[in-house]
Every structure is written in C-alpha cells, then in structure tokens.
UniProtKB/TrEMBL annotation:
This is GGDEF domain-containing protein. It comes from the Bacteria. The lineage of its organism: Bacteria, Pseudomonadati, Pseudomonadota, Alphaproteobacteria, Rhodospirillales. Residues 24-278 form the EAL domain. The chain holds residues 708 to 999 of 1015 of the full protein.
Amino acid sequence: RAKDSGRGRICTFTADMNLKVVERMRLLSRARLAFDRQAFTVHYQPQVATRDGRVRGFEALVRWTDQELGPVSPDRFIPVCEDSGLIVPLGLWVLETACIEAAGLACRGAGDVTMSVNMSAVQLAQHDFVPRVLEILARTGLPANRLELEITESQMIGSLDAAIGKLNALRKAGIHIALDDFGTGYSSLTYLRTLPINTLKLDKAFIDDVHRRPDARSMVSSISRIAHDLRHSVVAEGVEEAAQWEVLSLMGCDLIQGYFVSRPLPADRIDAFLAAWEDRRAGLPVIRDDVV
Ligand code: C2E
Ligand code: MG
Ligand code: MG
Ligand code: MG
C-alpha cells in the first residue's frame, strides 16, 4: 500500500510539473499577445495622509483581463513576464501611462499628488534603466519629485552595489524610492539601513492584526520609529477597517493605503473619487493636525 501511494505521488508530481510548464507557456503567449494589442490597463489606488486625511498620491497597479483566460492577477502574470523579459517593455509602458495620468491630474487641480510605480528586479538590472526612466519623465512632463518607484528587498539579492548606484542616480534626479512589502523578507533591517530610500511600505501582513493584537502593534510602532529616525516616511498597506486607521494614525504611520480608503480605480474614476473623498475626510476616526 505504501508503495502504491508512493508511486501515485510521483505520478502526480510529474503531472503537476508538466501542467505548470504548459500553464506558464500559455500565460506567456497570451500576455505577449495582450501587450501587442495594448490590452493591459493601469488602475490607481489612493494613498492618504493620516495627518490631515488628504490624498497624497496613488499607486499604479497593472491590470489584465484576457479574452480566453479572464481576469489574471499580477501575482500570476508578473513572474512569467519577468522570466521572459516581457516585464521590461510592459514595465516601461506602465511607467509612462502612470506618468501621463499624474501629469494630467496636476492639470485638473490635484497637482501635489505623487505617483508610485512598481519596478521589477529585471527592470532595475537593465543597463539603461536610469536613462529610460528619465526619458519618460522628460516626455510626459511629470516633475521628478512627483514620481516614486517601488522596489522590494528580494530584488536586491545578488546585485546590491549596482542597484544602490542606480537608486542613487534616480534620487539625485529628484525621484523618490519606496521599499515595498517591508517585513516579508529575510534581512529587512540591513536593507533599511543600506538602501537609499525615502519611503517604507509596511506589508499588509503587519497591518491585518494591528488593531487586535498588541504584538502586531509593537512591531509596527517599533519599525515606524526606526524608519522615522532614518527620515523615511511610513506607508501602511492593505488597511481595510477604520479601527486600523485609528491605531496606525496614533502610532505615527504617515500614509494609509487600502480598501478602507479605496480599491484601485480605473483612471476615469479618479476625479469622482477625489470629490467624494473630500466629504468622507471630515468623518475620519482620527485627524492629527500636529506631528507626533
Ligand atoms: P504591491 O505592490 O504590494 O501592491 C499592493 C497589492 O495589494 C495590490 O494587489 C492591491 O490591489 C492590493 N491591496 C491594496 N489594498 C488592499 C486591501 O486593503 N486589502 C487587500 N486584500 N489587498 C489590497 P495587485 O494589484 O493584485 O498587485 C499584486 C502585486 O503585483 C503588487 O503588490 C506588485 O508586487 C505586483 N504588481 C502590480 N502591478 C505591477 C506593475 O505594474 N509592475 C510590477 N513590476 N509589479 C506589479
Ligand atoms: Mg507596490
Ligand atoms: Mg506592497
Ligand atoms: Mg506585494
């Protein structure tokens, strides 16, 4: 019996592997087609300051609904695009689209918001990464200090010096750098000290229990204090409830991002969101008008 189940396991394992390869190949060929047909879109999720409840920026998030596969999550297709190199043109397209959107927002009276765009390790590793980013800023007319690039610490493994050199060049041009998904990797605190960043984004995993568990709360307040000592601002990701906002605000998190404020929105719903948010702002749980 043991032998049977053992053999069964091996068969399943092999079949799974084949399925994964086939699945990834299909995903990649559909993604290539979608890119050529301009079927990707970008949605924008607001980031709000705890201090006064004002919208300080948006994060650009790529979206894809395939004709055959239906909606595909970035968590599924980004890795495939990274392995194949498709992320390089796709990432530049997302960056340019988001910069155009941000420049347009400025013309419509929301001139002081920042646009945050996720960067893949594969993009950062390109030799011409920095000039390509600067070229897009010049072409779209977005001031450099309105752009923030989000990177993750897992991207730094293997090429830390090269990455730091590029990040420094981007910062020198005025672009902001955010460390995304902070707390999910292995050597977070070392990276926090080493990387030239402006912003630290606390991963949703820390935020989920922050209003229920004292241990989650002490993690967030300690990390926030370290980040502030290093003169980084702190963004809480994945905030879904008013109670989380309240706790995070009292603990000194600078910005809140999450479904509590808004889901990521298509570009044509940003103006309506901004108008509606002005009404909601007044009723927020805690508005700090001083800096703690
Ligand atoms: P991320 O950069 O950490 O983005 C935050 C993710 O959390 C987004 O998922 C967002 O929709 C989701 N989220 C925001 N607020 C909440 C909330 O309150 N509750 C919950 N449950 N989720 C929330 P999304 O859009 O599916 O993106 C997943 C990941 O894919 C991103 O994580 C990012 O790593 C990657 N990604 C998305 N767009 C791009 C892109 O243009 N380029 C690259 N390289 N990666 C991207
Ligand atoms: Mg991000
Ligand atoms: Mg994140
Ligand atoms: Mg993430």
